[in-house]
Amino acid sequence: MASGGVKLNYVKIYADDHGETHFKDEELPMAFLDYAPPAPPLWVGPQGKATGVTVCGFPPAWYGDLHPAPKVEWIMLMTATIDVEVSDGEKRTARPARKVQLSISITSEAKGTSAAT
Hints:
- The chain is mostly beta strands and 117 residues long.
- The chain has one domain (6-116).
- Helix content is 0%, strand content 37%.
- The strands form 2 sheets. Strands 3-2-1-7-4 form a 5-stranded mixed beta sheet, with no helix packed on it.
- A hairpin with a 4-residue loop joins strand 5 and strand 6.
- The chain is globular, with a radius of gyration of 16 Å.
- Residues 98-114 have low confidence and may be disordered.
């Protein structure tokens, strides 16, 4: 298997200088590494810092009004979909990740009207 060229695509929600939130398509470079021998090599992204992990489950038809992110958050969907609207009015639907698909990073920069889920 080739050792380069794979990127994880994800969507970032960020706030502009006026506090308005927007979507931005981003890419995370992945390297094919012998990460956990004797298991075979796999695609690995750069190591980040984390202070904790929280697992959330949402009941069907759950809705949250526009709200700021309390800290940097990564949302990775296992089942179902989530509709997200940012304060500029754009809406996107996030679907469960298969190999490498979509996650939403809500950054601490998003302090304006933020996003509705």
